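Q: My labmate handed me this sequence with no annotations at all. I'd like to see what the chain might look like in three dimensions before we decide whether it's worth expressing. Could you predict it?
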Amino acid sequence: MWLFKLSAQMVADFKSTRSPQEDEEFVRECNLPAGRKSSVVAIGVREAIAELGQVEPTYVRANDRFDNELVSLPFWDSLDTIEVILTLEKSIGIPITESEAQRIRHPESVRGMTVSDFVTDVYEALAEKIVTVQ
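A: Here is what I predict for the chain of 134 residues:
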């Protein structure tokens, strides 16, 4: 008997307990300043988490906690800071320096951290750089 669920089963179980959240509602619930820059960051972070968790982005909700709801996704047992940063860079479309990465709290380091909290960290760490995002 397998001690760990297969990734596909983990994702299916995760999805079965929730309904998708539209991008507009997700961005609104992240409570960032209104504007294109906020949307780019919020959606980029959501896409990165979804990619790491092997689930469609709409199933990642702004109020999900990493140590509660998201812990059931496949990436949680091997969450690696470098992989998170690389995936964020790809999703948001801009490089993240080491000093910027250090300003983003790792989800495992903060009990009860929500996706919205993580979006805020990324937004604040990259705010000056994202001014030019179209």
